[in-house]
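If you are new to this repository, start here. Below is one unmodified record pulled from the training split, so you can see the exact layout before writing a loader.
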Amino acid sequence: MFGYQIIKAAGRSMMPGIQHDAFLVVRPARLYRINDIVQVAHPYYGAIVKRIVWGDNTAGFYLAGDSQASLSVEQIGRISFNQILGKVRWVINPKQLNEKIASF
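And here is the target side for that same chain:
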């Protein structure tokens, strides 16, 4: 609805901010900036969620995970604007969801 997608995080590369099994609300943006967390269609790794650490909307971006267990910037390589599926707008970690359900 309105361009938003809800996806489920798999893995621990974005911990501690995004935990395994977190729900992410993603929406495309006109511009992306350094520090944005984005979902990307990677040609080798498939759909991945990483943080923009360098680059711009014209020349492309370099991404990294927040955890040391993540792929390296070199492994991910340069990402073009067209490969970005959207910016993560909200994160609902499993603990937050469980607390909300328990108090309902």
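Two things worth knowing about this chain: The beta strands are 5-8, 23-27, 37-42, 46-56, 60-64, 78-79, 84-92. The chain has one domain: 5-103.
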